[in-house]
Amino acid sequence: MRRALWWAQDYAYAAVWQARAFGSRGRADAYSRGAGVPIIVLPGIYETWRFMQPLIEHAHRAGHPVHVVEPLQRNLRPVGEMAESVSAYLLAHDLREVILLAHSKGGLAGKLVMLGAEGSRVRGMLAVATPFGGSRYARVMLTRGLRSLAPGHPSISALSEQREANTRIVSVYARFDPHIPEGSELPGAKNVPLDTGGHFRVLAHPRVMAELAALAE
């Protein structure tokens, strides 16, 4: 019963924020100024940056410039292409000591950025509900992009084998994630399991805000 309730609450949260994101006319550049550590937002698949707006507004109120990489759009492209877009943004804006704030698939792209040519520009990453080891449900998905998130897929396996960036990653995840039954624990990272359930609504959990603040310090 508890898991069923968590599942229902999770999809209710997702529905509300997808609807708000669709109706929002807010501009990304409204959050791009501040004296604090720069933050780059990496939403999950089918999500625009507005889906993470509660976290963005929290970080911006704390004085951080929050950057949105517009070419990511709804994150339907392969993880490698997402990482290339983020790396190009870091280089073009000469950003350093950056914190990556990622949800779900965005965390995979973020880790790839940290392993790439511009990885030295990244201080660390807060990854929320990221399928670092893949998700078995991805095997039955209709699109190639989603199937590439399955355990054993070459992209997931290759990323898992590269652990040098893991010590700069904080992985926050719910005890029960209806989308990632394997969980989001990442060897060598700071792993923060939450005593709750969900894949989406954990974005608004106070511990996520606290971990972001700790990384920014």
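Next protein, fold it too.
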Amino acid sequence: MIAALAEAALRSFALGGVVWIGLNLFRVRNPHVHMTAWTVVLLTSLAMPFAMHWPTLTVDRLPLSVPVLDESWPADFSMLEHPQPSLPIASGAAIAPVMKRGLSIDWWMVATALYAGVAGLLLLRLAIGLCLTWRLARAAKPVKSREMIDADVRVSRDVGGPVTFGSTILVPPQFFGWDAKKRLAVLAHEGAHVANCDFYVLLLASLNRVVFWFSPFSWWQLARLAELAEMISDARAIEMIDDRLSYAEILLDVAASVKPRPMELAMARASTVRARVERIIAAASLPVAVGWRKRLWIAAAIVPVVIVSTGMIAYRTPDPVPVGTDLGEVPAEHYRPFVNFYAMGPASVFAIFREGDELYGQLTGQRKLRLTVGKDGTASYASSFGEITFPIDAERRSSELMLRMNGRDVRAARVAEMPMAAADASSLDQYVGWYRIAPNRVLTVRRDGDRLQVQESVQGGAALLAEGADVFSIRGRNLLIFLRDEQSRVSRVLVQNAVFGARLAPRIDAATAQAVEADFARRLARVPDRFREQVPADGGKEMILRGIEDLRHGTPNYDRMSAPLAAKVHRQLDETRATVVALGALESIFFRGVGPGGYDIYGAKFENGTAEFRLLIDPDGKAGDVIFRPDGNDELGGIVSCSDEASVRGRAGTSPIRIMVYNEMGDDIQVFNLDADGNRRMQSVVRPNVSWAAVTTVNNPWVIADKSGRCVEILVPGRQTRFHNVEAANIGTRPGRAARRAVPIANGEEMLRSYIESVGKGQPEYEHMTSEVADITRQQLPFDQAILTRLGALRAVSFRGVTALDSDIYVAQFANGSAEWRIGVRNGTITKIALGPNF
């Protein structure tokens, strides 16, 4: 409500500004014209909260592409997490641990209460003034005289001078002792107020001031209308007695005795009489009265400005596909609005694309399926966790797609547009080239006969399978969609990956690709020694300190960053700055180690929590990449029973925190955030043996549900629940109780040894990994293989404990050093893997 009223006040101010400029530009001096113009502005101001956005100008256009994050986090993202102490939450707890750092204030609620309080006082004052003056008018005695034909004049002992209330003129008992000229001037002045309905205009202006009391324009409007009403009435009185100086004396005489009430129009208030007398004496002539016809022309001249001030511009794409139309008969331009990528979470993307005369959909990690269009105009996609439907025409008016899944609405934001293929789409040569998929990695697309081959920096190649126009896949899972520019040339590729989500890779030339590859090779050569020695890079700590301070002020120094990092920071600036500001003042920063990707890892202690920074420094001394993860504060978090969902409410926490949920349920799960009203807001669908992560705040609850939407458990983010395993055996247990094993997984050490051996040879056994672990292994293979080569032969493996994600922690001793490994195994398959330094 506050936002709508503020917008209405701003629009009214803009309208008033245009009218004021117009009146002064054309040098309009007639108060009758001014009164008409400002009355129109007043009526528009009162109607603005209801009328704004009503007149809409609709512009046809094709949807614009929305950029997507093109950098992924390294595979060692959660390597350094230590097991949390087993501190249970009392049974029956609703949301919060008892520890609390600060009071969460809903500033919108405070602003609403303040607005309502002031508006209520002003309205009460107005109502009391109306009531008291109405009683005074009823008690007054009517007066009849030949001077007062068609005027409701009454005598009241409670008024000191002539005043107007509605259509009633109240005069004091001394009225009959005045001379004829003074009586005529008074009746002419007050009669003009009645004839012009000034009382009702000023009553509306007072109501406008009550509604928009926070706007100086509403106070100015009331004062200006009252001033104009007096100017017009003064002119009428002077016209009747034909003596300016005598009328000025009458005004001064009346002003000395009148004491008006709030809702009376007094003939002469002491605060305004001086200016009025000076204006009367200085005026050369009386203003010309304006008839109703001219008033209508004045109002008509302002109407276009009124429409502009209340209107808005809306964009739409071409007309929707008619219900029941065969898609094969629909022109290509009708497909453009809904042939796109839609993000349903950090690593869940819904792709819609066209193949021939048919539409296809594919959810991250799911099979490509044909979309069917029903007679109700909705398209349907049958996923493994239920049917997804969406209205084709409704999506055209927004950059979002409202999906219907298992009876629930899920909002998915468009992350990139997928244009239609060019006429020569049959030629594979148009896709051949280099695409920068990450700050230090290049995706190379080559042609091999009648097929395409794709290879990421220093990794093995893979064949691309054609899935449709401009659409290919790797092993039928990871989708690649080549995007075109305005000239229909392939300019980017959007890679959909189950682990890293959607990554947008712009096309680059051969020289740039060679430079990126060379830089990657230099980094790869340095990583083994840096990982073994665990020594921070020179200047890294100072670079992070400067970066934190720059982010806090919203002025990052892009000159100290690589081009890809600068682009990423610029895109995420508002979100990252808000997180850094929420963490509060920096208290300390310390070096944790070097990750297997060559990133220096730093921990930071802030006033309102902790965070982790991972920094990659380029050979030229610039920051090549930075990964920032907030870790919350000392509050523990917990798990709440689904039976308490009705009483659980979301609330804004004081400490940002990144949570990671791993699905070991054996079936898809859904993740919902709970808002302040306890309503679910769909965030993502997490497939089996896949992790999902999000940045939130401590104590902001999340509902984890099965694929039908039935609640499984409610996760409250905190120190104990930053990393959470969703497993049937642990449902309903307290954090840290069921996952703490005293012994390692039966075949965990054997699986780890086999993994280390195969990675060291550069031939990982992907068939013994989940799809997520396989993708992480492929991503990290160049670094892990180089590190293992530098560490030498494996000598011993010792079990050290269990993580919050139920992974076993091992320390592996090599001929030339040691390293820490974390591994999760289920039914002979590796479900989690991470390599990190041995602290």
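About the second fold: Residues 60-104, 315-338, 394-398, 418-425 have pLDDT under 50 and may be disordered.
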